[in-house]
Structure prediction request, 180 residues.
Amino acid sequence: MVATTPGCGDADDGTSPVSTKGMEMTANLESSGRGRRLARIGVSLAVLGLLASSLGVASVSAAGGPGQHATFTKWITSWPSMAGNVGGTVGDGAFSGTVIDYAPGPTTLITAIYHFGGSRHEFTARMHVEQTGLQAVIVGVVTDGWGKGKLVTGEYTQITCQHGGLTTDCFRGSVDVGGG
Prediction:
């Protein structure tokens, strides 16, 4: 039996019946939105897996040496700008950055520009960030400066820190440059 829409195919109005089968779109829209998010996360994780496997067992810095990495502590200054400090292979210096895209959720997805202005090396990278809880995995590519064109991988942990007389959420982590 075919369900009809009132006023469209009733015996009294003489028009042909219109089926409403499959018209319940609310549940489908909710599940398709969830499906798109899950698919996006799945693709991102697959890309991260491929990039991580391309690095092999040891990491390589842009200068060619094994096990070297840059460290950072960063925070949001005024949205979408970031500031902070860097160290490690790049030497002590300043971090700056800008969030380009932000998609909050159980796993927050972020695209950002990171700039490491160390005393020994300086570079800018476009980064893809996936943060779940207080932990994040980051992957990107150096777009300018030391190691231009190289793969960047790393991680950070969300913490609380003091800077400039303020106590705010901060993000402390490290990156390895190389392997690309």
Remarks:
- The first helix runs from residue 25 to 55.
- The beta strands are 70-76, 81-88, 93-103, 107-118, 122-132, 135-145, 151-163, 166-177.
